[in-house]
Amino acid sequence: MSDTPNVSDSTAGDDIELNLDALAPEESHDDDVDLNLDALAPDKDDEHTDEAPLNLDFDADSKEESSEEKLGDSDIARNLGLGQDADDEQQDSAGEEEQSADNQDAVDEAVAKLRDDLDMKFGQWYVLHTYSGMENKVKQNLDARVQNFNMEDYIYETVVPTEEVVEIRNGVRKTITRVFMPGYVLVRMDLTEESWGTVRHTPSVTGFVGNAMDPIPLTQDEVVKMLTPSVIAQVNHDMAGQAPSPKAKRKVEVADYEVGESVQIIEGPFAGVPAVIDEINVNSQRVKASVEILGRSTPVDLEFNQIRKD
What we know:
Layout: H1 11-14, H2 44-50, H3 58-80, H4 84-120, E1 124-130, H5 135-148, E2 155-159, E3 162-169, E4 172-179, E5 184-189, H6 193-200, E6 205-208, H7 220-238, E7 251-254, E8 262-265, E9 274-281, E10 286-293, E11 296-303, E12 307-309
Parallel strand pairs: 3-7
Antiparallel strand pairs: 1-5, 1-6, 2-5, 3-4, 8-9, 8-12, 9-10, 10-11
Helix pairs in contact: 4-7
Region (Disordered): 1-106
Keywords: Transcription, Transcription antitermination, Transcription regulation, Transcription termination
Domain KOW: 256-283
C-alpha cells in the first residue's frame, strides 16, 4: 500500500478554486450606482424657458448694445438737462433762418408790388441830370413849377432815388439815408414841348440824360433797379428787429478814410510814420496800409484809432 494519497477520483470535484469576487463585498447588481451625466444638464423644458439660444452674430449684439447705449445716454442727457443749450441754439438758428426767409419774401413782395404800381401809372420815366448835391432842391423846384404852370396833366411825379447805408464816422456806426444816384433825378411825365420846357428850365437842371431835345424814356426794369433800394429800406423799417435777408442787408461804408489816402500813424511801433491806405475792412474797422522802411514799401495792418488824416 502506498503512502501517497489517491486523489485521482476527487480531483475534479475537490480542486480549490480561488474566487476573487469573493474578496469584494457582496453587492447586488441592482445596487450598482450608475453615473448619469444627463442629470448634470438642465431639463429640456428648462432649456426652452430659462436659457437663451446662443447667438453667434456678434455684430448684431454690438449694434443692439450701441443702440441701447445711445438711448441711455440720450435719456441721461435729457434728464440732466445736458445739451439743452445746443438744442436752443439750433432752434434759435432755425428761427433766424425762418425770419430771414420771411424778410426775403417781404422784399420780393415789395418789389413785385412796385412793378404792379408802375404798370398802373400814366406817363413815362426820364432821367434828369442835375448839379451834384442839388437833387432834393431840384425836386422841390420842379414840383413848384408844375403847380405854377398848371402842368399837373403832363408832369406827374418827381423822385430822388435813395438808399440806406451804415456809415462809420469817428468809430461810430450810424444808419443814414442818402441819394442813391448823386446828380440824377427821375421824372414821370408825358413829353410835350411845354412839359419839356418846364422841366428843362428848372433851376439846377442841366438837361435830360440822352438826347437833350428828344430824350429816351427808361424801361420798367431800369426804373425798378433805381427805386429798389428805397423799397428795401422801407421793408427794413417795417420788419425792424428781425433777421435781415441777404438782399435787404445794408452796405457798410467808412466816411473817415478811403483807399489811396495818405494818413499818419499815431500809435504802435510805426508811430510817426506816414502811410498810404491800400484796403479798408469796415467790419473789423482795420486798414491795410503801406509804409516805407529803408526805401522799401512794407505792408502793415492797423486799426482805425491808430491812424489819422494828414
